[in-house]
What does this fold into?
Amino acid sequence: MDFAKAVAIVLVVLYHVGGAGMDRMFPDPDGHASGLWTRLNAALLPMRMPLFFLTAGLLAHRAVRRPWPVVWRGRILVLLWPYLLWSVAFAAIAGFAYRPDDPMGYTINRLQVIPYAGSAYWFLAVLTVFFVAAKVLRRWPLVVLAVTLALAAVAPYLEPLIDRSLPDLTTYAIIRVGRYAFWYFLGCYAYAAVERLARVNPALLERGCSPLSASLSV
It folds into this structure.
């Protein structure tokens, strides 16, 4: 599990470095190095977030059986307050970098999508929702896994059907929930099976996420 956590963290860091820091690492956007980095990031896309949420589910498999008063502070508030704090801070500051012509408009837009997990720290809000759902639904693990697997399969086709009155970032957050819920619940409810697989060959855990995630995202 430690290996999976480390790989998930490294992949997420590589993604953000490759996006926000591309112009600093590779001044020539059309150069061979920048093209290679872009292709590498794209190749890792099917593995990155599924592995992250699978690992998070593995870490939550015992906590979902604890009483609500115990997990309220240790599993829910511990995710919610950083999400709110850093989302507001990002909204207040980032507009000057990303929208220098209208920083206030950018800030207002970012504040509006915070309740819908539309901020840059969306994963903290989604982890909270997944944990609460996993605890409430833990008596029906097979049903939850079947439903979320089906949801992951249709998630790429849901975006055109979602009400267009929602902000774009909110729509994106809903699609993310559909794509990644299965991986979290798989780790949470099928902990023993995933652990056995990881013990046989830890690399199978990473390689296994990639093709299945890619097939669900087509």
